[in-house]
Amino acid sequence: MENSIIGNVFTERDKKSKAIPLKKYTEAYVVSFAVLSERFSFWGLQAVMTLFLMQYFYQSEQRVFTLVGAFGALSYAFSLLGGLLADKFIGVWKSCLFGLILCLLGNSVLIFSDSLISLNIGLSCILVGAGLFSPSSNNLIHLLYEKKSDLRESGFLISCVAGNISGALAPLIYGIFGAKGIWHGAFLVSAILNCFSSLYLIKHYNHFRQACGNQLYQANNNKLGKIIVVCFVGIAFGLLVNINWLNTLLLIGIIPLCFLAFLLYRQLNECERQRVKFIFFLTGILLLFYVAVFQIYSSLTLFIDHYVNRQIMGWEIPVPAFASLQCVFFILSAPIVERLLAVFRRKGYMMPLLIKIPVGLIIAAVGFSLFAFGKWIAFKSGSCGIEWIIVGNFFLGLGEVFLYPPILTVVSSFSPRKWAGTLMGGFSISLAFASYFSGKLAWLLTSRWMINTRQIESVFHLGYAKIVLLLIGISVLSIIMFSFLKKWYHLQINLLNSNS
């Protein structure tokens, strides 16, 4: 039984309402709008935090990179805890709704923040809100298309496009506000979006109830769940205030994570264990990919600020706006790639995940090679043009199209039902570590180019060139591993399709 006031209202409404006709992707678009609003504040903060902390709060460069990496890491780390909360305490629906409300509260605090204390309070609410919302929004889409496996990847693609619309618009809007010195205005935009998306999600509750049934409330221990959510906000605040603790906690946190994974593993049958191993393998690939890609929010931001000529017809493009390019090209590339793959499917060929991953990694490597050549030109002549940044981000966006939606689809499909939220949150842990190590890599890259610029003799000595080699190496490794897993993978896909 649903005990909350909201749940009782919805239950009574269900009894009185007639069946609602459903369109093919109605609910996916509703979830995607919520994703757009939640990701808007996250990507906006990621894009401007480097300059915001340095220019408004006068923080040192090293502390800024540490905080940017920690913010991203904690956001994804809380996704694991949010997945556990959804599975065991508050359910998928309330996890999504509470997450949006916390993001609204956090952005409302940031609107009036004028000290590091109020800043950290706002960021803490956003961190926990994102942690609650992200895994459950993915599981909500999975539930919507549980019996329509042929539509599931398209549903996830719609959600990914919505997230990348935020990734495209948020850095630009935040950057424009920052260029005018009114940073807090951007937080107001985020708060308005969070408010509308929460109301829109509630309005369409009956659609989700009809499509998903009681699976929206697989767990229901509201009082304890709410207490845990408040505790999470306090923990996030403590970590942001004492950012140096994060290194120790990351190392210590590996132990309970491994213990949790072991307990989960013991409860699975042999088939489920094999699938979970495959999920961990894909998670590792994505971790390394995003260690590289997240440079667009740290080292690449600083490089653009120092070395890139941003003047166009007398107007100087705000630095944070460049962080939106990768998302813009993801949005533009996704429907084109989807259409091409649909043409191939009609001709009897389906590009499997085992091909998409190496292709995506190699395409991303091309993007970083362009960053490396742009940096090489800047170091030799004093500056470089924006074309190197634009085209490089195009290849990053295109590469992500071949990686993220297909991997997300496999993770949601291969996850055991009773641990779906936990594994989706665990999947986000890879992004947490990616964000954290990306901040460390950014400090390494920027400190070296500031000190040893004259000692660079070849483009291959640049950090971005070494990232190219890393991505190519991962793609080769994935090809070798997939050659051994090909038959098993197709067997699992056929089993899942026959059961759905």
Structure overview:
The protein has a two-stranded antiparallel sheet. It is globular, with a radius of gyration of 22 Å. It has a single domain (15-499), classed as Growth Hormone, Chain: A. The two termini are 27 Å apart. The longest helix has 51 residues, at 61-111. By secondary structure, it is mainly alpha-helical. The protein has 16 helices and 2 strands.
Question: Any chance you could write out the topology, listing elements then pairs?
Answer:
Elements: H1 5-16, H2 26-55, H3 61-111, H4 116-144, H5 149-179, H6 183-203, H7 205-212, H8 222-241, H9 245-266, H10 270-293, H11 299-307, E1 311-312, E2 315-316, H12 325-346, H13 353-381, H14 387-414, H15 420-451, H16 463-499
Antiparallel strand pairs: 1-2
Helix pairs in contact: 2-3, 2-4, 2-5, 2-6, 3-4, 3-6, 3-8, 3-15, 4-5, 4-8, 4-15, 5-6, 5-12, 5-14, 10-14, 10-15, 10-16, 11-15, 12-14, 13-14, 13-16
Please provide the ordered H/E string of secondary-structure elements: HHHHHHHHHHHEEHHHHH
CATH classification class = Mainly Alpha
- Helix content percent band: over 70%
Q: Could you give the distance between the termini?
A: 27 Å
Give the overall shape, derived from the CA principal axes.
globular
Poorly predicted runs of 5 or more residues: 1-22
From the helix content, strand content and strand pairing, which structural class follows?
Answer: mainly alpha
Number of strands: 2
Number of domains: 1
Could you give me the name of the CATH homologous superfamily? MFS general substrate transporter like domains
What is the topology, as strand order, of the major beta sheet?
Answer: 1-2
Strand content: under 5%
